[in-house]
Amino acid sequence: MTEAKKSIFASRFRGYYPVVVDVETAGFNSQTDALLEVAASILHMDEITGLMSIKETFCFNVEPFEGANLEPAALEFTGIDPTNPLRGAVSEDEALKTMFKKIRKAMKEYDCQRAIMVAHNAAFDLGFINAATERCNIKRSPFHPFVNFDTATLAGLALGQTVLAKACVAAKIDFNNSEAHSALYDTEKTAELFCYIVNKWQQLGGWPLPPEETLDESTTD
Questions:
Q1: 10, 13, 28, 37: most buried by Cβ count inside 10 Å?
Q2: 218: burial class by Cβ within 10 Å (0-12, 13-18, 19+)?
Q3: Nearest to 141 by CA among 99, 92, 100, 98
Q4: Rounded to the nearest 10 degrees, how much is the dihedral formed by the CA atoms of 9, 194, 171, 120?
């Protein structure tokens, strides 16, 4: 696809396609603690207005991998019972491969070369996704292995708040604390927050850059 025909989404983030992710886990150690839930929001950018919105959100309950650690305090905090058969949990392998397939389809639709994870305190979520990808011996993840967009940082800059709930309130996004700490809910709220910040920046005149301020496409990370 030529430069003239590239989607506005592909131009906005240097060919990266932002995907909003949240994980719920049985602890803080991505190498030893179970991944219990993962959700992702696929985003859309209007070709005329350049405004972003949520296109689709999907979520998986995940079976703990063999030998996974389950910290009681973490389970109490999230309210997740990994042994509950009504969870309809799937393996890490199935959850990740299905998620990656959906992400790649969206990347192709918007002519983006690589996905970039958007999450609140993103290093945590990316660490668990990377660890699960390695455990499942999945050779190609659509996500950049270490670059991410952290909405805690972005919200601190844009709204003066780093806690997800408080940042949403500052952005006038409804937030129900009783529904928080579910991957599905937190992902959608993080996606709403990310879209709000990106759209607000555009509306304030921060994007697109004047032509003389645009870096050469050959510039590397």
A1: 37
A2: exposed
A3: 100
A4: -170
Tokens representing residue 100 in the block:
């990656």
Model-wide pTM > 0.85: yes
Q: Report, in angstroms and rounded to the nearest whole number, the Rg of the chain calculated over CA atoms.
A: 18
Q: What percent of the chain has pLDDT over 90?
A: 90
pLDDT score, position 4: 47
41 and 193 Cβ atoms separated by less than 8 Å: no
Q: How far apart are CA 191 and CA 196, in angstroms?
A: 8
Q: E strands of 124-202, at which residues?
A: 143-150
Look at residue 84 and tell me whether its pLDDT is greater than 90.
Answer: yes
Rounded to whole angstroms, the Cα distance separating 157 from 162 reads 9
Mean pLDDT value of segment 34-43: 98
pLDDT at 215: 55
- For residue 37, the 8-state DSSP code is E
Identify the residue whose tokens are 């998986």: 60
Average pLDDT over residues 45-72: 97
Q: Catalytic: 120?
A: no
Cα 124–130–132 angle (5° rounding)?
Answer: 105
